[in-house]
Amino acid sequence: MKKVKEYLPTFLLVVGLLICLVYFYLKENNYEKVIVLDDVEIVPTLISNVENNTIWCGTFQLIWNDLQEEVGSDIVFLDDMENQMVLDLNQRTFTENDISDNYYYKNYGFMTPSLKDEIEKGISEKFQETSNILNNFEFQEDSKDYFFYTMLVVDFEFLKPFDNINNNIFGITNDSLEELNQNVKVLYYLDDENYAVLLKTTTDTEVILVKGESGNNFLEMYQSLNLENQEDFLSDDIISISKFNFEVEGSFDEIEEKEFLINDESYTIAKTMQTIKFKMNNTGGSLKSEAGMEVNKGSISNRVFDFTDDFTLFLKEEDKSLPYFAINIDNIEDFR
To answer: Taking the CA of residue 268 as centre, how many other CA atoms within 13 Å lie in the half-sphere pointing to its CB?
Structure first.
């Protein structure tokens, strides 16, 4: 017990020093806790209905576009032809033309280990990134199933770092340097509930913030903006912006286990997955998103046509509009 008491002050000192070292390391490296979101809906398209907390990123639409290219037409589920999510995805409201090639990587093919290796090598060389979703899919030799994949990575910095107002908010106050005003262009200010601004960055990324948005989906909201009308942020103006640091993961159950045809062969969407990680603070931000889709090959279920009871029979001439004979069978035994 005496030896324990002798070493206790030294032990506490060492622990205290370690805690300080960890604190200053995290502070120096701008460590911020990443929030994993649960109560947020991921929508697959720009025209999907938006309600409450909703997120969209173009990665899933890009892999759907590749599926359409492989099929050679719009996707049509054999037993669910009016599936609204499929109808929206088939409109291809976001394509490769809407984003520069240096911001995304995509690939698809038979679901073999070599495809997985090719994807991992591709995102490593292009973005120095690793995948968070590939290990959730099973790649097998000689597979005839398809796998579609996209990763999107964007980093941006504001022209000048905004002021940190508190742990959750950054912006420009009456005490901020006037040079920060160049970060902001005002798109419109109608009243204290309806306004929009554009934040300038050192790259081609533009951050658009809208209050009092109008529209039922993100496309309608975006198209209601006039990006050509940009006014200066005035010296008496004040802006407060929430910080973000979250990641979210989702799938699209509405289109899974649905049968469709590729070159007259039956396939089923077995699994979908999309992840989105977004961070924005007073200096800038980053976005990373992945999307993957497994499409399994499978035979069409046999259809059975049973005209042994409870059916109707017509006889007609080939080029005539009406039959000349008809029988409705309620009980075949009455005819035997």
So the answer is: 12
Q: Are the CB atoms for 93 and 46 separated by under 8 Å?
A: yes
**Local structure of 32: helix, strand or coil:** coil
In a 13 Å sphere around the CA of 312, the CA atoms on its Cβ side amount to 5
Which parts of the chain are beta strand (E)? 35-36, 41-42, 54-55, 104-110, 146-157, 163-164, 169-172, 184-191, 194-199, 207-211, 231-232, 239-242, 244-250, 259-262, 265-280, 284-297, 311-315, 325-329
d(CA 255, CA 60): 12
Residue 236's nearest CA partner among 186, 170, 290 is 186
Residue spans per domain, the chain: 1-31, 36-299
Where are the alpha helices (H) located in the chain, listed in sequence order?
2-28, 59-71, 84-90, 113-127, 218-223
Phi-psi domain of 257 (left: phi exceeds 0; alpha: psi -120 through 50; beta: other): left
Residue 234 is given by DSSP the state P
180, 183, 187, 192: CA torsion to nearest 10: -40
Which residues does residue 53 pair with via DSSP β-bridges, in sequence order?
A: none
Query: pTM of the predicted model, to two decimals?
Result: 0.80
Residue range 14-42, pLDDT digits in tens: 545 444 444 444 444 444 677 777 788 99
pLDDT 10s digits, 311-336: 788 778 788 887 766 788 888 888 76
